[in-house]
User: Fold this.
Amino acid sequence: MGKQIPIVDYLVLDDGPPHLVANESVETGALYFDRRNADAKSGKPGFRRRRLADTGMVRTFTIVYRAAPGVPTPYVSAVIDVDGGGVVKANLVNVEPDPENVRAGLRVSLTTYVAGTDDEGTEAVAFAYEPIKEA
Amino acid sequence: MAERDVWILGAAMTPFRRYPDKDLIDLGAQAAMAAMADAGVTIYDMDVLGAGNLAEASSGVGQRLQKQIGQTGIPVYNVTNACATGATALRCVYMAIASGEAEMGLAAGFEKMGKMGLLGASARSDRNVYEPSGRYGAVMSVEGRLGTTLMPGVFAQAGMEYAGRNDGVGFEQFAKVAEKNHAHSTLNPLAQYQKRFSLHEVMNAEMMAYPNTLLMCCPTGDGGSAIVLVSEDKLKTLSSEQRARAVRISASVMTSDPWTEADQVQPDVNTLTRDAAAKAYEASGVDPQDLDLVELHDCFATAELLHYDNLGLCAPGEAGKFIDERGPWRDGRIPVNVSGGLISKGHPLGATGVANLYEVATHLRGEAGDRQIDGARVGLTHVIGLGSACVVHVLEKATV
Assistant:
């Protein structure tokens, strides 16, 4: 296996199992995946890094049929309410892309997949969510 | 804050179409000249110009428009604010008049899009060697890999969030919105499309992003719209014919989205609309149930359904019931998008937020022809620019 690199910098691959991190406002606990000068909720500066939970619930979704060039369709795009705080947008995988199989409230967990390989053999690893199979 | 009352004196729009033989300035000039003629005034009566456009926003479109219709040295505000661009240009003129800096002004929104395809797609191409860049350290385009930010999908997700939280809302209710707006457009000669489709045809059209099919998405297109605004003080000095056709702006409100948790990753089109509507109803003293017609931002069918609730046109959570009962049809309780809406009238981005005021004002004047809502006295316009900006106006037929 060649070198791997996260598709975005808030996906951490080299510190235990893959997980997401965010910048958390010390004032309000609001979470951001990018850098902010001040908390958009309170206007106050001060952030700390926070690891997000790997599980969550589908807040909403769509099934995309006409997509950007090179993106296989259909696929499920979903907005996930992460357990313990945080909202993230990602693909929903390992589920039939059909409205009968996807619904708001579906319990999901974080997973990863290889989104591409560059000319030097480096793999870009993306994150996604998949349904949690009920016991 | 003391404000002067502001009225619409003249209004016009080009038919929304694709115009391969006209450029952006042709479209703006056509609308502007028509609006001034409708108002019975000329460019020499204008104290200020607001010009709204996206595609050529850095090119000084207002000054280019002046070269086409009259360079009088007045201040020009070139505005871009996503799909709320036209309404933002209009508000620049409104504020200049309300503050007492101007007596009369021209607001023009115009756009030439052609067939642009899906909006919101990242222009970034994948690299041959991955290197993190940008605010999120992305090594490749994330569109379709970390969900979608293309417009049909974004608004599909907005709609499905509402569907997930409210009973009686699903694919069929969203499709009924498009069925209605396509039907309405058959009465509007200014609409880009004027073809009726059955609910079955809407639901079985090509799926773009569930639940939005192709017939539930607005087209890209070209067009212009312009409005002449005047202070009430100035209006009182004009002819009885001009006063009789003037339309009062009872509220003009603009909001951006306040912080919400999910808004950081998925635009929240609801909160800022609710905020703007609340302020507009308070400022005007108009209750939603008083409205004779509404032109709202139906860029996608899913969006329109949300705004029934956001604008208070239905009871909370009952947008599905509202469309099921044909409440927003032109013969329903509160007619919505009798122009055909963005879905069928078209959505040349910069023109949209002016054209919706043209539509409502034309009904309040009793000049809407076959699509006239009889006896219309109070109307509301709503536009959203994703990112987000929201503008709501309440217009009333009144005498001065």
Notes: The beta strands of chain A are 4-6, 11-12, 19-25, 31-32, 47-51, 55-64, 75-82, 87-92, 107-117, 123-131. Chain A touches chain B through 54 residues (CB under 8 Å).
